[in-house]
Design goal:
With 96 residues, this protein is mainly beta. Helices cover 0% and strands 44% of the residues. A six-stranded antiparallel sheet has the order 5-2-3-4-7-8, with no helix packed on it. Strands 1-6 form a two-stranded antiparallel ribbon.
């Protein structure tokens, strides 16, 4: 909890919202039909919809806002989409 969450690719913040299950969430739209989702963030989100972000831009910090995962230790819920379909993030970006 509290670890900085950084954007993996440059793009535009498409949505900042609270998801009923995943908690505080940021979606970033990238080129070539790609989007990334960062969820279970703390309530303080330093970016807004429409902001341009670079790889490494801090989108928030790991929190405990995901109701569906409240029994788990604090962690980031990360997803990568290409043309609206979820793909294994490890095949698209270097993680860790």
């Amino acid at each position: 909890e509290g670890t900085a969450v950084k954007c993996v690719l440059g793009g535009t913040v498409e949505k900042v919202y609270t998801d009923d299950q995943l908690g505080r969430t940021v979606i970033v739209k990238h080129s070539s039909g790609r989007k990334t989702l960062y969820a279970n963030l703390n309530d303080t989100i330093p970016v807004q919809e429409g902001d341009k972000v670079n790889a490494g831009t801090v989108l928030g910090t790991v929190g405990k806002t995901a109701l569906s995962e409240c029994a788990l230790e604090s962690h980031l819920h990360f997803a990568f989409f290409v043309d609206g379909k979820a793909v294994d993030p490890a095949t698209k970006v270097k993680l860790g």
